[in-house]
Design a protein that fits this description.
The chain has no helices and 22 strands. By secondary structure, it is mostly beta strands. The termini are far apart. 54% of the residues are buried.
Length: 207
């Protein structure tokens, strides 16, 4: 077990967690699924497979790290992901190149997002065609999304909210207590308007 510090923005203090694993460039291919426990990201890491969260997962972005996940992070209803930063808060997570109908961070196709909490770091997440940036996949509600700290940029796929629901789905329960947040629904694809909320419901659905 490796012990790694993280910054708790709610209690305004440093804490330490014993981690199941430290995700690095040379081992990331082993972690296509993260099961219940604590994990930390160290250095520059690129994963080329969608990472699935099973259970209750805590992820620490160490200061100075850069974590790119091609395929995004799947957090389906019934599962939970909490993202932490360290004291400088400059660890980066980028969820990109997601397949159609999936959220960048959140639900898969036709699945609502789970419980997603962001407590720090620099997060960039982009959904794909009908999926939210952070929240639900296509036809999936946003789930429970809480942002306490961090710098978040989230963009929905066509008809998906930036933060919230996929197409035809509600935003879920979204709580923002802090952080710098930029969220946009994708408005155009092949000349058509998607009309999803930046924060809230997907296209054709109220909050």
């Amino acid at each position: 077990v490796a012990f790694v510090s993280y910054w708790d923005p709610v209690n305004q203090k440093n804490e330490t967690a014993g981690c199941n694993a430290i995700l690095k460039a040379d081992n990331i291919s082993q972690y296509t699924t993260l099961t219940t426990g604590w994990y930390a990201v160290e250095g520059t890491v690129t994963g080329d497979t969608r990472i699935k969260v099973q259970g209750t997962v805590n992820l620490i972005l160490e200061d100075g790290c850069s974590f790119t996940v091609n395929g995004g992070i799947e957090v389906n209803e019934g599962n939970a992901l909490t993202i932490w930063g360290q004291q400088k808060g400059n660890g980066k997570l980028k969820a990109q190149n997601v397949v159609n109908y999936c959220a960048g961070i959140g639900g898969g196709n036709n699945i609502s997002g789970g419980n997603i909490t962001i407590n720090g770091g620099i997060i960039q997440s982009e959904g794909r065609f009908r999926g939210a940036g952070i929240g639900g996949g296509s036809s999936g509600a946003g789930g429970i999304i809480t942002i306490n700290n961090g710098e978040i940029q989230s963009k929905g796929g066509y008809s998906g909210a930036g933060i919230g629901g996929g197409v035809n789905a509600a935003g879920g329960t979204i709580t923002m207590n802090g952080g710098e947040i930029t969220a946009s629904g994708e408005t155009k694809e092949n000349g058509q308007s998607g009309l999803a909320a930046g924060i809230g419901g997907g296209s054709r659905r109220n909050m």
